[in-house]
Design a protein that fits this description.
By secondary structure, the protein is α+β, with helices and mostly antiparallel strands. The protein has 4 domains: 6-170, 2-Layer Sandwich (Beta-Lactamase), CATH 3.30.450; 219-290; 325-405; 421-580, Heat Shock Protein 90, CATH 3.30.565.10. Helices cover 62% and strands 16% of the residues. It is built from 10 helices and 12 strands. Strands 6, 7, 8, 9, 10, 11 and 12 form a 7-stranded mixed β-sheet that branches. A 5-stranded antiparallel β-sheet has the order 2-1-5-4-3. The longest helix is centred in the middle third of the chain and has 96 residues, at 219-314. It is flat, with a radius of gyration of 52 Å.
């Protein structure tokens, strides 16, 4: 396996930081030297102006063009001067030589000397010229001397070469020094440690100790001591393991002796039990004969009773027959809904149980592997550590998935038992609705259906909770099957609040809304009719809405209204009387 040297990596980082700092300091030094050179050039321009001011002023006063040209030519030959501009008292240019700034940048009304800032690499010094005559000063013009960036850089060439050469030489010697130090203090001890570790032999732990040359008062000395201490502890563990194995062999020998004695005792008792079993068998045969005669008599009485029942059933009128058939169909639809719920719950419970079986099988294989290693005396600390880690992960996986299966079965048990029971129960309404929704989640997972419940969590009441579970189950499944047909997502809102009532403790009012495809006015008119369905060609029974109507009106003694518009969803509003109860107990019966 390829690896990256620690010493090389550390050396690279240290030198990179040093080179970066050296580069920044060198650049700062060069910039400082450049600014100092510019200031020196500006002072030279000022001195040159002071030197030629008197002669240039007289030449302008006397309009001596030849003298002005001679002065200008002499100035432009000075290395520090890259250009000049000489103007008269009207601001007209008399002479302009070399590299200069634009005339617009010069002062329009000369007052006093001033330094011209750097523009496009050109800077200069401006000075007005005044002639003294008869004690009066008369302005005869001005002169501006310029220098450039090239002049400054030309003066800095030697300094720049010295700075760069100094930085390169220092960096080279520092690289050699660091390379030698890292190689001696880190690379060589590391290579020696690696070679001694590669010669490790589990069978000869005493010869596998490491002994590093060089100083012992650094990290490598601490590592050497820790590794040798680990070897000593492994040897002690192997001795303890050998003693334990001897004790186990002795215990197995004693266990074999006890098993022999137990087998002899069992054989003696078995012979006595055989006689007793023969007597019991004879009595059993006598009882079977009596039971057969009794069953035959019971069968004859059942036949007679069945004949009487069939005779009575024929006397019932046609209306009672139709009502009974309708009631049976309603019960069948309830059982079919509960059966679909069972199928979905079983599918979701199988997933955590399957994961638990896999984790158990993996843990059994790891235990068998550890037992083999223990018998062969090849068990190492690393194997034991990996086994403990794998065992913890497997146990955690088992706990999580068994807890998930228990929650699913608890929710299903609560809803299934309530739907099949008409008893009055004391429930927290919000918590009960959450249980109903949780039990339906496996049926709704094929579509992204969002269910929102708006209900006071402290609302507790006494009523036939099983009827409410059937109502909400049918409403939600009808929305899922019919309302969200050909839709991949949807939203259902359930709003619950308590309304005062003079005849009872209160009326529990529900508003159920979905944003499905809705119903037409003709479909809405026949919604609660038995056997009316929009899915007759796909197995719809047409009893879901009829069950809702029957449970609310007959079972709960409540009222129901429904409204819908094509493409805008369906809305149920229903209420029924309840008995209000106190605060939530610590151990809920839900």
């Amino acid at each position: 396996m390829q690896y990256k040297s620690i010493s090389r990596s550390l050396l690279t980082r240290v030198l990179s930081v040093y080179f970066a700092i050296t580069f920044i300091v060198t650049c700062a030094h060069i910039i400082s030297e450049y600014n100092n050179t510019k200031r020196a050039l500006a002072n030279e321009l000022k001195n040159q102006q002071s030197t030629i001011a008197a002669s240039l002023t007289r030449s302008l006063w006397e309009f001596n063009s030849q003298q002005i040209d001679a002065i200008a030519e002499g100035l432009i030959t000075i290395p520090a001067i890259s250009g000049l501009i000489i103007r008269d008292d009207q601001g007209q240019v008399i002479r302009q030589l070399g590299i200069t700034q634009a005339l617009e940048g010069l002062p329009s009304k000369p007052i006093s000397p001033e330094v011209l800032a750097d523009r496009n690499g050109v800077f200069g010094h401006y000075s007005p010229l005044a002639f003294e005559f008869s004690g009066q000063s008369t302005l005869v013009g001005d002169v501006t001397l310029f220098s450039s960036r090239d002049v400054a850089i030309d003066r800095l060439k030697v300094s720049m070469l010295f700075l760069f050469g100094n930085a390169i030489i220092k960096s080279f010697f520092l690289l050699l020094l660091f390379s030698f130090a890292f190689n001696r203090r880190l690379t060589r001890p590391m290579q020696e440690l690696t070679m001694q570790l590669e010669s490790f032999q589990p069978d000869t732990l005493g010869e596998s100790r490491i002994n590093l040359s060089g100083e012992k008062n650094n990290e490598f000395g601490i590592l050497e001591a820790a590794y040798n201490d680990l070897i000593d502890r492994i040897q002690e563990y192997q001795k303890s393991l050998g003693l334990t194995k001897e004790m186990l062999v002795h215990a197995n020998r004693r266990l074999d002796e006890q098993n022999d004695l137990l087998e002899q005792d069992v054989a003696r008792k078995t012979s006595g039990m055989s006689k007793l079993m023969l007597d019991i068998e004879e009595r059993r045969m006598e009882l079977e004969q009596r039971q057969f005669a009794l069953e035959r008599e019971i069968q004859q009485r059942k036949l007679t009773e069945a004949t009487l029942k069939r005779t009575n059933e024929r006397l019932r009128d046609s209306l009672e027959t139709i009502q009974k058939a309708q009631h049976q169909l309603v019960q069948s639809d309830k059982l079919a809904s509960l059966g679909g719920l069972v199928s979905a719950i079983v599918h979701d419970v199988n997933t955590p149980i399957g994961i638990g079986v896999t984790a158990t099988s993996f843990l059994a294989d790891r235990i068998e592997t550890m037992a083999i290693a223990l018998d062969e005396q090849s068990l190492t600390q690393s194997q034991m550590t990996r086994f403990i880690s794998d065992a913890r992960e497997s146990v955690q996986l088992l706990e999580n998935n068994l807890h998930r299966a228990r929650e699913l079965m608890a929710s299903f048990k609560d809803v299934a038992v309530n739907q099949s029971s008409g008893a009055f129960r004391d429930i927290f309404v919000h918590e009960y609705i959450d249980n109903v929704i949780r039990s339906l989640k496996p049926r709704l997972k094929e579509k992204a259906i969002a269910l929102h419940v708006d209900c006071d969590k402290g609302l507790k009441a006494r009523f036939q909770a099983g009827a409410l579970a059937q109502i909400l189950t049918n409403m939600i499944l009808n929305s899922y099957i019919h309302g969200f047909d050909n839709k991949t997502n949807g939203c259902i809102h359930i709003h619950v609040h308590l309304e005062p009532d003079s005849t009872s403790n209160g009326m529990l009012h529900f508003v159920y809304e979905d944003d499905g495809i809705g119903l037409s006015s003709d479909q809405l008119e026949h919604l609660f009719d038995p056997f009316f369905t929009t899915k007759a060609d796909r197995g719809g029974s047409g009893l879901g809405a009829h069950i809702i109507y029957t449970l609310i009106h007959d079972t709960l003694a409540g009222s129901l209204q429904v409204s819908s518009h094509q493409g805008k969803g369906l809305k149920y509003e229903f209420s029924f009387p309840v008995n209000l109860l106190g605060d939530k107990p610590t151990d809920s019966s839900l």
